[in-house]
Amino acid sequence: MATKNDVHLKAEILSKKYGDIFCIRVFTRRFVFLNSALLIRKLLSSVKYRDVTNDRPQTFFKKHISHDGRDIILKDFDERLVKLRQIVHRSIKLYGEGIKVFENMVNTEIRNLKQELWNSTGEESFDLDSAITFSLTRVLYTFLTNEPATDTKDVCDIITTYDKLINALFSFGNNMIFTFFPWLRYLPGPIAEIWRKTKHSQERLYDLFLNSSIKRRMKSHGKGLLGNIFREAEVDDQIDDGCIKGVLSNMVTAGFLSTKGALAGFFLLMLYYPEIQLRIQKEIDDNIDRNREPSLDDRAVMHYTNATILECLRFIGHVPFGVPHLTREEVEVDGMRIPANTMLITNLWVMNRSEKVWDKPGEFLPERFLDNEGKLLPKEHPIRLQFIPFGSGRRSCIGESFAKSRMFLYVTSLLQTFVLSPGKNKLPPLDPATWKPNVAMQPDFLNCLVRLRPERKIS
After folding, report:
1. Is 156 annotated to bind ligand?
2. What is the CATH number of the domain that holds 424?
3. Fewer CB in a 10 Å sphere around the end CB: N or C, the chain?
4. By residue range, what is the domain housing residue 350?
5. SS3 of 388, please?
6. Domain count of the chain?
7. pLDDT > 90: what percent of the chain?
8. How far is CA 396 from the centre of its chain?
């Protein structure tokens, strides 16, 4: 029985006993855990299965947080979902001229972050976690509205408060507690209190982004994700207020939580492994002129940096489970019969830590993603095929390119200019099994000493 919401740790134990696929039953519900990337790809992406394995189960949060599944993350797979995903992809625009627009948006906020680090050089305890949080929320606000945030503190408070509550409530264990015992939210106690706080926080989020003033501006210029979706709503009556609220909630959580956790984990690793930080900085110096900002075009030659980012995502495994899928009808895979209406749990935690797949999985080794010539392994390489941190198939993370692009720019921009070291600060544990088991896990804190690299300046 899982305690303290540590379902991912219990599932890891069960996978060692039962292998790549096993089923458990809780009351009337079946849960099939998929513990390997190849099996996940087969069930969710292959022509044989994908039409019947990409719905979402009915859960408490699907009904009460995503407006009966009228969003992207918890909606059943249909033509409406495809259209919503297309709207988001058009808003991200990581293609053609849109790449430079994206870079300018992100680099504007990275410059502000670098100035904050510069102002704190030499301080024994700089709160890097809070600085990254503020920076990412500003980027997210601009992405949603195509406008800079005028009250950064208030925007950051509204977004981070909502995300912290969703991060805890939407974890596998808590999601099931509310689904099986929804009446608990009416009883006095901590469950009712956290539910009340979540609903209040959600209303603050809607008031920030969907007030009448923003709606007028978004409909007028039609830019940013909200501008795009408001324009679509004018010609498509199925995109109603519930749908817009659902998509907004999705992007605020998916656009912040996973990237924030990944960056916090990455820079914690740099504090533990200064030799890897130094090697990344050498690659930056060899390929990027110190007088210009890193660009997404640089990814093609930054093999070690890209490998380190991939290894960070594998090592920290900060998203232990993908969002549950549901089978529309009975299927059979690898000798197991899976009835209709069964929850499929993509067990990314075990996928990242399997000794059958990874050599020394408990060690942080960026080289595992490089070939003998030091080049990044191609996506079709067997090692890369065993690694799907953003999911697989029709319901893979819609913000994958958004997240990976921001992560590359933040990593290269900060390490181009600064050296990060523990100083006299106590570091949080590096083992992610000790972190709070939320939807997206991350270290509890991240304080460090910041020093300017030799002959560097802030423009």
Report:
1. no
2. 1.10.630.10
3. N
4. 7-452
5. coil
6. 1
7. 75
8. 11
